[in-house]
């Protein structure tokens, strides 16, 4: 990594110092246009409100297909199809052949609070050394969603601090910090038995920044920013120790690391990156993820043009049945666009589930779904804060 081009090291430098300078803030990405409106009028509505029409559609589809839980076998080798409560490490284990080199290396460990935190951190560091995975790394819960609990750990002490705030007997993942700033969510669909799939959506995920003016402190910069000010509570809590700092003129400060809309990242529709070459590469990769047909692959990539060629990217997460085609959170999207995408997604989800039912896969019970939901909700409430 020390011989990597400068722009590839920008992410590593930010991992150490969020006020890094003299580096492009979004290397490899198409330019981020911040002119015009900052958000769509519904962008930060409660999720339950946005999804209410989808619940109605789900019930209508359940009546049509005579099964309310058919989507739970859309990806039949992932527990509950990836609807809720699946472990990321279990999904990674489904990858073989062509898929494995494209997935960022990761290890998992179950936290045992009966072992001293420092001792457990040392044990994990030994395991990381065996895998050739140096700091900094990404720490995140094995079970979780929407970027909850995602942090950069830069050394063994930060790993110990992360473990200290982690729920007992819960599993965490430590993953290679892919040295590319550029990030996207690629929503992929392929019907069982078919050779070719489709990329339904690409969402470009931009880290939010404010820039110093030599006068205002970080708190003021956040609160006065047209977009950041709308969700200032996220950033003010996250950066308490820096809020009184006055940044030099032009100095960038990264407000969020996790590429999640609910954690503050900026999403833009990236449909211009969908190409036959990238689709073919995802066909090859997903065929080597056992019985994976529907979901979003979150990737980091070196450069947008190379991504279009199906080159130089790493998958950092594989999301199943509950995935969103997250381009719907682009500020230019309309509610009509949102429901066109969501209704298509869930119609497809039922259709794939019906095909897999015909192939002999059995749907899990609603009780299993409810238990997984309760477990995930309990864990999410107790994870460390997101970076």
Helical run tally: 11
Care to count the β-strands? Answer: 11
Classification by helices and strands:
alpha+beta
Sheet with most strands? 5 strands, antiparallel
The percentage of residues in β strands lies in: 15-25%
N-to-C series of helices and strands = HHHEHEEHEEEEHHEEHEHEHH
What Rg is obtained from the alpha carbons, in whole angstroms? Answer: 21 Å
Spatial gap, N to C terminus: 23 Å
Helix fraction, binned, reads 25-40%
Strand order of the largest sheet: 9-6-5-10-11
Which of globular, elongated, flat, extended, rod-shaped describes the shape? globular
Let me know the average pLDDT. 92
Unreliable stretches (pLDDT < 50, length at least 5) are 1-10
Description:
The protein is an alpha+beta fold and 387 residues long. It has helices spanning 6-16, 47-65, 88-93, 117-130, 156-164, 218-224, 232-238, 276-287, 304-308, 335-358, 366-380, and strands spanning 106-110, 137-141, 151-153, 171-176, 182-189, 198-206, 209-211, 252-254, 266-269, 294-301, 313-319. Helix 2 packs parallel to helix 10 and helix 4 (117-130) packs across helix 5 (156-164). It is 33% helix and 16% strand. The strands form three sheets. Strands 9-6-5-10-11 form a five-stranded antiparallel beta sheet. The chain has eleven helices and eleven strands. The two termini are 23 Å apart. The model is unreliable at 1-10 (pLDDT under 50).
């Amino acid at each position: 990594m020390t011989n990597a081009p400068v722009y590839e090291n920008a992410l590593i430098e930010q991992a150490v110092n969020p006020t890094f300078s003299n580096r492009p803030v979004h290397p490899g990405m198409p330019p981020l246009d911040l002119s015009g409106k900052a958000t769509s009028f519904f962008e930060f509505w409660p999720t339950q409100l946005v999804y209410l029409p989808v619940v109605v559609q789900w019930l209508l589809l359940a009546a049509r297909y005579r099964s309310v839980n058919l989507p739970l076998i859309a990806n039949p080798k992932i527990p509950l199809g990836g609807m809720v409560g699946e472990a990321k490490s279990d999904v990674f284990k489904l990858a073989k052949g062509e898929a494995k080199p494209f997935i960022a290396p990761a290890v998992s460990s179950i936290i045992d609070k009966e072992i001293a935190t420092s001792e457990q951190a040392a044990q994990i560091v030994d395991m990381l050394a065996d895998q050739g995975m140096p700091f900094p790394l990404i720490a995140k819960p094995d079970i979780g969603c929407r970027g909850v609990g995602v942090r950069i750990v830069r050394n063994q002490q930060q790993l110990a601090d992360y473990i200290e705030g982690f729920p007992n007997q819960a599993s965490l993942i430590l993953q290679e910090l892919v040295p590319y700033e550029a990030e996207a969510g690629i929503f992929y669909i392929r019907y069982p038995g078919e050779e070719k799939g489709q990329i339904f959506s690409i969402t470009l995920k931009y880290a939010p920044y404010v820039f110093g003016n030599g006068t205002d402190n970080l708190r003021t910069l956040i609160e006065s920013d047209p977009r950041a000010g709308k969700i200032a509570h996220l950033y003010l809590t996250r950066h308490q120790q820096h809020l009184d700092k006055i940044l030099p003129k032009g100095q960038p400060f990264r407000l969020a690391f996790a590429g999640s809309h609910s954690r503050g990242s900026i999403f833009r529709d990236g449909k211009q990156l969908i190409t036959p070459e990238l689709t073919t590469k995802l066909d090859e990769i997903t065929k080597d993820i056992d019985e994976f047909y529907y979901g979003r692959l979150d990737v980091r990539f070196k450069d947008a043009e190379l991504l279009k060629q199906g080159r130089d990217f790493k998958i950092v997460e594989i999301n199943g049945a509950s995935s969103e085609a997250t381009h719907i959170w682009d500020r230019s999207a309309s509610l009509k666009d949102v429901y066109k995408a969501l209704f298509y997604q869930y119609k497809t989800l039922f259709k794939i589930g019906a095909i897999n039912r015909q192939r002999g896969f059995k749907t899990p019970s609603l009780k299993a779904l409810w238990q997984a939901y309760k477990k995930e909700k309990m864990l999410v409430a107790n994870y460390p804060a997101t970076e």
